[in-house]
Structure formats: structure tokens, C-alpha cells
Amino acid sequence: MLSPDADSPITTISEQVCNKKSKTESCWTIMLQVFPTYIIAGLGMVAAGLVLSQVQFWPVFTEVGVIIMVPALLGLKGNLEMTLASRLSTACNLGKLDCKKNAASMILGNLILVQCQGIVVGFLASLVGMAMGWLPEGKFDIDHALLLCASAVVTASIASFALGVVMIGVILLAKRFKCNPDNVATPIAASLGDVTTLGLLAWISDVLYNHMLEQKQTALIVIVAYFLVLPLLFYLSYKNEHTCLVLCTGWTPVLSAMLISSGGGIILDKAVEHFKGIAVFSPVMNGAGGNLVAIQASRMTTYLNKATNSLFGIFPPEEDAVCILPCSALCGGYSSCGGLNNIQNASVARVLLLLLIPGHVIFIIAICFLENLGTPTPLFFVFYLLAALCQVAVLLYLCQILVYWMWSKGTDPDNAAIPYLTAIGDLLGTAFLALSFMVLSYSQDNFLEGMESDVSFENVTVLLQSDAF
User: Fold this and answer.
1) Is 313 left (phi over 0), alpha (psi -120 to 50) or beta?
2) Which distant-in-sequence residues (6+ apart) come within 8 Å of 26 by Cβ?
3) Closest to 188 (Cα-Cα) out of 176, 203, 173
4) CB 267 within 8 A of CB 431
5) pLDDT per position as a tens digit, 264-289
6) 276 contacts: CB under 8 Å, gap ≥ 6
7) Between residues 246 and 318, which one has the greater pLDDT?
8) Contact 109, 243 (CB under 8 A)
9) CA distance 421 to 391
10) Which residues contact 392 (CB under 8 A, 6 or more apart)?
11) Alpha-carbon dihedral 254, 260, 264, 265, rounded to 10 degrees
């Protein structure tokens, strides 16, 4: 029996563990490390936006409605590739890839796992997209449905495998050259994920569309072939000790994120009808916000692991509150707002918000230069940056709550938080961007009107060319 004056064993362990202070990084150090990778990832999304601005006028996008699946499939980067990079980077830092046999088993198991997840998520993304896009209008076309399902499944499968191989190569090279894979793998996944997925989706759907016009059943054959192979992939992944747990428990965040991203697809599909130029900015807006909040989620999880020796449910002193006010999440450390709590996470959040502005300015200039859209007006910059700031501020606040809630429930945020946050980023980014375009339209912004007229002329040109053939 313990006397009333004796310290509780749990309290004593918690205090002993949490009293160890981890070395904190200065704001300048964080800024210098994050900004280059943020720009690299953002430029990859600029390329994705340029691809989307070209393919949105293809018949398969305008007639079949492939564009409604774009946010959900681009979200695979956060659902699969970025979590794969996080898992393997952690394994590398823990020395689990030092043994060749163990490394081969882990790498092969994870490649099979992302194939299982990619096929299932791609198929469900097409079903959700059709339900959201077709049910309100009361229409259904079996040929279009097969095309959408086949396009989504093949795109998700090939993109997951190709990007997974790239991630493994990057992590092994980083290990060889004594670099921390956490600093290089995730940004590369972000920079390559969008443009690769979007390019594959456009190409595959266009090929299947042409086959559909020729009365070929290619889409049906592809779907049947994939679902015949899927049980074997599930069996191999289940038998692998490194992926069995994720296969059995990791579906909730992936599928929930897919549903959330599909909501962004509905908004994008409606917005493109009124603002053709929104397609080129949407991947950048969504992806940049998702990247910043993924960095914050990863850093917060690392902070909790270091501060508590990876004891789930245990928090550092005075940081055991799961639900806090927005001012504490973003302004912690100032006595007038947030007090002295949450200093570590709030300071990083402020740095990320500051990096957002010059990053998006660079992305806007790059898009306008590459697309010959002219010079953006100050009003366009103001409303675009305001939309981006609102998106990231909300995401950083949700990140604070979600990571700490998962930690309190014994769930590793590294595996579950990023899919939710990147999906919410897609939804919020598309919504805020569409709202800013509406305000600019009502304000009769010269840059927006000029961009829409240029895009409309290009649309007519593409349609005339397709009619000629």
C-alpha cells in the first residue's frame, strides 16, 4: 500500500521522463531547413497545375467528368506516399534497414501494401466521385462508370508503385551519404506525387476514352484483372511482419481522407465551370498547405516522442490539454495570447505561416510566367494570399488538436494524422480559392478577367481541333 503522501508511480514516471529537455531549434534554423524543401515541393505542384490547366479541356475531362476525381487521387500523395516515406525514414533512423534481409522484407512488404491501398482507394474514389457528381443530376452511364473506375485504379496503382520505388531509392541514398531521410524523402514525395498522378490520370483516361469510342471493353478487362490480383496482394502483405499491422488497422485514415478529398473534387468541378483559370492554381494551393501542415505534424510527433520516451498517453509538463484555443496553438509563448504553454509548437506554426507568403508569391509568379498569364494585380495577390493564410491557419490549429488527441489515445500520429490533414487541406484549399475567385470576379479584377478570356479562347481552340479530327 502507498501512503497518502507518497508520489503516484505514474506521476513520478511521467515527471522523470518529461523533465528531460530536448534541444530546441531556433526559428532561423527551422526556416533555413524548411523553406528550400517547401519551394521544391511547391514547384512540383506548379507543374501539376500546368498539366491540369491543359488537360481540363480534353473530352474525357469535360464529357466523362474525370476532373471530379483529381483531388482524391492527388490526395494519395498524403495518404500513401508521404506515410510510406515517414515509415521507412523512421525505420532507417532506428537502424532497421541495416540488415539486408530485414531491409528487403520491409521494402517489399511496403511496396505490396501501397499497391493494396492504392487499388482499393482508387476504386472507391471513382465510386464516391460518381455518386457525388451524378446522383444530384440523376444520371448514370455504364461506359463512363467503367472508364472512371479503370482510370482511377490504374493511376493509383502505377503512381503508388513508381513513387514508392523512388522513395525507397531516396531513403537508401540518404542512408548511404549519412543524410537524415526525414529531411529529403517527404518533400520529394510531395514534389513528384501530384504531377506524376495527374499526368498518369490524363494519359490513361484518354487512352481508355478512345477505346470506349471504338466499342472496346478495355476498361472492364482492366478492372477484372486488378481485382483478380488483389487477394494475392492482400495475402502477401498480411503475411509480412512489417506491414501486417498497418494493413489491418490503417484503413480508417486512408478511406476517410479519400472521402474528404472527394468533397474538394465536387467544389473544383463546380468552380471550373465558372472560373477556368482556377485549375492551374488549385494543385498549388492544396499541396502547399498540405506540405506545411505535414511538416508540423511530423515535428509535433517527434517532439512528443522525445519528450516522453515514446510513452503514448503521457504528455510534457503543462501540455496535457488536447483541445486548446486557436490563439494558444498559433501564439503560444506570448503572455497576452496563449501564455507560456505550447511554446515549442506555436513558434514552429508561426514560422510556417511566415514561409507561406514568399512561397506562394514565387508560385504565382512561376505559374503566370509559364502560362503567359500576364502580371497579377495587387488585388489578386491579396485575396489569393488571404485564402492561403486562412487555409494553413485552420490546418495548423487542427493539427495541434488531432496530433495530441491521437497521442492521448495511443495512436501514432505519424501513420494517421497526415492523411486527415492533407485531405482537409485539399477541401479547405479548393473552397477558399473558389471563394477568393468569386470575390475577385465581383470586384472585376483585370488580371482574373484577362486570364479567363485567355483560357476561354484556348478552350475554343482545343474544341475546334477535336472537332476537326
Assistant:
1) left
2) none
3) 173
4) yes
5) 777 877 888 788 778 778 878 887 88
6) 56, 452, 455, 456, 459
7) 246
8) yes
9) 11
10) 289, 292, 293, 352, 353, 356
11) 60
CA distances from 71 to 115, 240, 423 (A): 19, 31, 8
First to last CA, the chain: 88
For the chain, how big is the Rg over CA atoms in Å? Answer: 23
Could you give the CA distance from residue 241 to residue 53 in angstroms, rounded to a whole number?
A: 43
Residue 334 bridge partners (DSSP): 337, 338
> 330, 393 in Cβ contact below 8 A?
yes
Number of helices followed by number of strands (H, E) in the chain? 18, 0
Angle between helices 278-308 and 343-371 (to 10 degrees): 160
Rounded to an integer, what distance in angstroms lies between the CA atom of residue 85 and that of residue 90?
A: 8
Which three cell numbers, joined as nine digits, stand for 442?
465581383
> For residues 445, 446, 449 and 451, what is the CA-based torsion angle, rounded to 10 degrees?
-120
Q: pLDDT by residue (tens digit) across 337-361? A: 555 555 677 788 888 888 889 989 9
Residue 341, helix vs strand vs coil: coil
Spatial separation of the C-alpha atoms in residues 390 and 258, rounded to whole Å: 22
Burial 105-134 (b: 16+ CB within 10 A, else e): ebbbbbbbbbbbbbbbbbbbbbebbbebbb
